[in-house]
Specification:
Layout lengths: L10 E4 L30 E10 L19 E8 L2 E11 L7 E4 L2 E10 L2 E10 L9 E11 L7 E4 L1 E2 L3 E6 L12 E8 L9 E7 L15 E4 L7 E2 L1
Antiparallel strand pairs: 1-9, 2-6, 3-4, 3-7, 5-6, 7-8, 8-10, 11-12, 12-15, 13-14
Length: 237
């Protein structure tokens, strides 16, 4: 793993203020997918998500568990209401220092994004990309949450995004263990996204860890990894 940036591509904390009857688009600098028209003349609420993208790390030892990876350049939101396909919305944003909805500081980029949602119980799915346009890059993190949206009051929603494992660096603490006697050696595991950023936190799906030796002479202490902490303490026996 040669990338020096080890920011976590995991946590997206979004503050959502909903205004009854407000339409709302992406605003200047945003690229907005056209939403489907809701049925029953339901008026969508306007949700504001605050997304913070950290500046590039200057040290490979820097890890901040509650930040998005600094390689994130765009985001999309898919909002759906179970049982009512007509109440669905899709919004896409480019997240760069040139975007009118983003401001730059020494700590990174802060973007205020408008997302439409129908009043009621909605599901929010968010994807974070390492490219400025959809379909041109990789999804480096994804998240999902279900929330009840009230058109009469402000609502706060937190979405925790999971890193999408794409690369793995695996090593043995002792690459030449003794034979003929019972022994164990630690297994070093670094799981990263498509950009080589080490994921610190949960993965979007469990990873299976297998031993190709079918003789039974060797075994692994763990065979499933759901999050980065599961990768600690793994031994080959």
């Amino acid at each position: 793993m040669t990338r020096s940036n080890t920011m976590r591509a995991l946590a997206l904390v979004s503050t959502v203020a909903l205004l009854a009857g407000c339409g709302g688009g992406a605003g200047a600098g945003g690229s907005l997918g056209l939403p489907t028209q809701p049925v029953n003349n339901a008026k969508p609420a306007s949700a504001t998500f605050i997304v913070k993208i950290p500046a590039k790390a200057s040290s490979s030892s820097t890890r901040r568990p509650h930040y998005i990876t600094s390689n994130v350049k765009s985001i999309d939101f898919t909002v759906a209401q179970p049982g009512n396909a007509a109440l669905g919305f899709y919004t896409f944003y480019t997240l760069t220092s040139q975007s009118n909805n983003c401001t730059t500081s020494a700590s990174g980029l802060t973007c205020s994004l408008q997302v439409q949602a129908a009043p009621g119980t909605d599901t929010f799915t968010v994807n974070l990309y390492d490219a400025t346009e959809p379909g041109q890059g990789f999804i480096v993190a994804t998240g999902f949450v279900s929330a009840t949206i009230s058109a009469q009051s402000s609502n706060t929603i937190t979405i925790i995004t999971d890193g999408v494992p794409t690369l793995a660096n695996i090593g043995l603490g002792n690459p030449y263990p003794s034979t003929g006697t019972a022994t164990s050696t630690p297994v070093t595991l670094n799981i990263a996204d498509a950009d080589g950023d080490i994921i610190v936190g949960s993965y979007d799906m469990p990873l299976a860890l297998t031993d190709s030796d079918t003789s039974g002479a060797t075994t692994l202490s763990k065979t499933s990894l759901a999050q980065a902490s599961d990768a600690t303490g793994v031994t080959l026996n």
